Amino acid sequence: MSLFLQLLINGLIAGAIYALVASGFSLIYSTNKFVHFAHGATVAFSAYMFYAIFSLWHTELLASVILSLGLGAALGYTMNFFVYNRLRKQKASALIQLVASVALLILIESLILLFFGADVKSINLIKVEKGLEFFGAIITPLQLFIVVVAILLLGLLYYFMKHTKIGKAMRAVADNKDAAEIVGISAKQIFAWSFVIGSLIAGAAGILVGLEQNLEPMMGTNLMIKGFTGAVIGGITSVPGAVLGSFLLGFTENFGIWYLPSGYKDAIAFVLLFVFLLFRPQGLLGIKRSGDRETK
Amino acid sequence: MKRNYVINIGVFIICAILCLALFGCVQQVKNENSTKVGVILPLTGFLANVGKDTQNAIELAVNDANALTKIELIYEDDACDSTKAVTAYQKLASVDKVNFIIGPFCGQSAIAILPLLNNDRVISISPGAPDNELSKPNDYFFRTRIPNKSETKIIVDYLVSKGIFKVAVYTARNTFGQSYHDSFVNQFVDVGGEIVFDDGSADYQVDFKTDLLKIKEKNPQAIFLVPASRQQMGIFAKQARELGVDILFTGGAVTEQQDLLDAAGIAANGIIYPYVSPKNMEIFYKYVAGYGKIPSMEALNGYDAFNILFGQIQVCDGNKECVRNNLNKLKDFNGAEGLISFDENGDSRTILGLKQVKDEKFVLLSDTND
Amino acid sequence: MIEAYFINLIILVGIYIILAISLQLSIGFTGSFNLGHIAFFAIGAYVSALLTLNGYPFIFALALAGIIAAIFGVILSIPTSKLKGDYLALATLGFSFVIYAIALNWIELTRGPLGLPGIPKPEILGFVFSNDFFFMILVLAIAFVSYLVIKRITVSPFGRALGAIRDDELAARTLGKNSLKLKSISLATAAFFAGISGSLFAHYITFIDPSSFTFMQLIPILAIVIIGGLASLEGTIIAAIIIVLLPEPLRFIGFPSSVVGPARQIIYALLLLAILLLKPKGIMGKIKLE
Q1: Between B45, B200, B242, which is nearest A140 by CB?
Q2: Using 50, 70 and 90 to split pLDDT, how confident is the model at B370?
Q3: Do B235 and A266 touch (CB under 8 A)?
Q4: What number is the average pLDDT over the span C58-80?
Q5: Residue C120's domain is classified under what CATH number?
Q6: What domain count does chain C have?
Q7: What is the pLDDT of residues B155-173, one digit of tens each?
Q8: Domain-by-domain residue ranges, chain B?
Q9: What per-residue string of b and e applies to C201-233 under the rule 16 or more CB within 10 Å gives b?
Q10: Do A96 and C268 count as a contact with CB atoms less than 8 A apart?
């Protein structure tokens, strides 16, 4: 029983982290309709900013958090403003936007490498010691905190999307951009907002991951791949779906490598992906896009 | 119209490339009196921090030996990728016309360029690449870094001396880790040991909780741990501590690096690993003073690689065959890594001892009260 | 001997050209967002390496590298035939991860992480291509032949049918085109050439291990396909030359060594962005993929 519980907890923690990355990413994807790989760079950027502000310049904790989140959001906004807007104006295809986002990812991660160096940075906020025990399974306070914060943030996001003006406008643009514009919504503004909100969440992910797993320049890419997978499994166009998919991924990975060698961890994720794409490509909660999935 | 524009861009780029290449040619003609030495290190990628460490140490060696006017170092980044290493090598060998290289650092890079080194008769001393695969006689490749099998031997002997016969093995899923894995497993099983768990980490893995759970279930007395990087080792140790996995940790010589302490904090305490002994602490402290952190073993290997090479270049007046002959016979060179000798395979035959992490410092095992 | 450096680059360009034009066949001409291309490259490399390491002649190994890769292409095309757009991309991407995992874990076959060192240089009718210059000729010859074959395909009725599927699969089927069969053949062909380039890669570097076949390796190929312009083989070739050669002049610009590593990546990314922002349809692209 304790074994099962421990695996469940491991999956929960991993899932929470993936979900934070995936939700912001999915928000951006559903609104903008292209894959923003550089989302991972936002995660890494916020983490490093937090490290710089909190650990290096010894700013007070709460202020550091707020500043880092703000900077992350600013980065997202900037990427949209300088790169994606221009590409949109040129009517570039989603594939081009994808390649541009990869270039941005490489650019930002290399800048981080340049300024911060390649060695591991630790934000030593919490002492390393054995975690709390529940029925034979162990979880550390920080890990518990991550799960709680993730759930809270995602809940906030849900509320935001359902009940605020901007949130509803975002969903409108995601559903049907042209119709939304007819009703008076400025798609351009909504695009910008999607990057701000999505990057804020990415920032939160970055800070939490930085605390739990330390910082290194490539951290963004790796999280992005997992978050991306989670989003697709859950339904890339649906933010709740992305969250669900991420938790599912977290659980499956951990239960999966209980039985298989560790090297198969990524393969598990992608077999899942494959299976979903064959039988339920819209993911768990996505909506079937008319005309692009099947060619009957 | 568009077509012309595009073709113009293409032509311009090709011209730019050729011009810069020529520029590179001109540059090399200018500094004829200094000997060029190529350096191939991972300056980007997941080993970038160790690459940087090694670069720092090499620069320190150049300064210490007052070699600035006599040696020109040319750095190339291979990002631990075999294809990039080949291109880096070709650039150094054919454009810069180096006869000597320090590196490559990574195993897969070294394996990829080994036939090229032998063919072009370019001498290479690597501060890394411990893969057993590279232990070959009569070639142009030397290593100041001890081969895996020497390290694992001393760990196996230690475990046996402590009556530990049930061990878990967790090594990186790349050439580096696999080489350690194979040496350790072969040697340990040979003396009657039992491997109860055998698996490894992916290069970028940061979550080991379920792996640790599996290890816990198998109840080993100790674990032999060589992940893909020091930060991985640190995170592994940290998560092990958090999950209450309280067994003896042993690792390879790569354990000794600042990154491990940064990542793991007190969770690193207790790890036992092989190390060169005795060591020239003067250079060690110089590095700490100059760069603010402990040098990794490979960095010190880099320091020694430079000095060995520089010494021979001086003695032989830059003659390749002379240098190679002398390297084959190198005995008891007094380096930062203790006394270095090369055996018939170009492998370093330095004496090894055991060290342990205690109070977040790296100390000799005999200093502890275990 | 300065030519050795350029010969090395030309060989890499040649290998990338074959890889890129075969991917262009999939993405640009057939409209299949195939992100699993690296898997075929890997399969070709491993097949060729294993065969020659076990004494089989090079020509046989080369051919089989292409054929077995093509078989995997057919295998992949069947379950993915109903998918389109992003979904197809993801499924094929997943396939490449699965192949990577197999290469890493099936140690009995591939030696896993240790890889396969000592792959022999190609030998045809007694002539050994140990000199890189001749190897370069071999690669360029194969690249040229590949270009001719793929070009022929694209202008043939078969190629036109592929174009029809790309533009509007439903309409094409209405007109009686068996889209599954056509897509399978297209993917198999693309995989075949990717396998060939994999074989050449293995015999050039003489050492392969799983780390050469990850998703990250696909990114430059994808960039080549897009920058070259969709449905343009000639554009792809120009783009391949640019992308492979782009980082090289940066070696000669004298950055301080402490900045060399990341600086190169930064400039590469910036240049890539510049090209995308200034010419998003690619150098010679004929169509846009929505």
Answers
A1: B242
A2: very low
A3: no
A4: 93
A5: 1.10.3470
A6: 1
A7: 999 999 999 999 999 998 8
A8: 1-30, 34-146+280-349, 149-278+353-367
A9: bbbbbbbbbbbbbbbebbbbbbbbbbbbbbbbb
A10: no
Q: Which of A119, A126, A140 to mutate to test the interface with B (most CBs of B within 10 A)?
A: A119
**CA distance linking residue B110 with residue B86, whole number of Å:** 9
- Touching A: which chains, 3+ CB pairs < 8 A? B, C
| A113 part of contact set with chain B, CB < 8 Å | yes
Contact C76, C192 (CB under 8 A): no
Looking at the domain that runs over B149-278+353-367, which CATH code has it been given? 3.40.50.2300
C245/B17 touch (CB, cutoff 8 Å), yes or no: yes
pLDDT, mean over chain B: 84
- Specify the DSSP class assigned to residue B144: S
Query: Is the Cβ–Cβ distance between B36 and B96 less than 8 Å?
Result: yes
Q: Which of C5, C84, C69, C3 is nearest to C37 (CA)?
A: C69
> With respect to CATH, is domain A2-119+127-279 assigned 1.10.3470?
yes
Q: Can you list the alpha helix ranges (DSSP code H) found in B135-252?
A: 148-161, 175-190, 209-218, 230-242
For chain A, give every domain's residue range. 2-119+127-279
Average pLDDT value over all residues in chain C: 85
Strands (DSSP E) contained in chain B are 35-41, 71-77, 100-102, 123-126, 141-143, 166-171, 194-199, 222-226, 248-251, 272-276, 333-335, 338-340, 352-358, 361-364
Stretch C204-229: mean pLDDT, rounded?
85
Q: Are B248 and B276 in contact (CB under 8 A)?
A: no
Rounded to two decimals, the pTM is: 0.84
B25 shares contact with chain C (CB less than 8 Å): yes
Least CB-CB distance to B90: which of C5, C209, C265? C5
In order of A284, B49, B229, B245, the CA distances from B171 in angstroms are: 36, 20, 10, 17
- The CATH number for B34-146+280-349, chosen from 3.40.50.2300, 3.20.20.70, 3.30.479.30, 3.30.230.10, is 3.40.50.2300
Query: How is residue A257 written in tokens?
Result: 């490598």
Cβ contacts of B209 on chain A, cutoff 8 Å: 6, 10, 13, 254
ipTM of the complex: 0.85
- Beta strand pairing call for B141-143 and B123-126: parallel
Among B306, B74, B10, which Cα is nearest to C5's? B74
At residue C169, the pLDDT reads: 75
What are the tens digits of pLDDT across the range B79-93?
A: 888 999 999 999 999
**Cβ contacts of C95 on chain A, cutoff 8 Å:** 270, 274
Q: Do A92 and C85 touch (CB under 8 A)?
A: no
B194-199 vs B166-171, strand pairing mode:
parallel
CA angle (A276 as vertex; A275, A278 as ends), nearest 5: 70
Nearest to B211 by CA among A219, A256, A269, A225: A256
Question: In percent, how much of chain A has pLDDT > 70?
Answer: 95
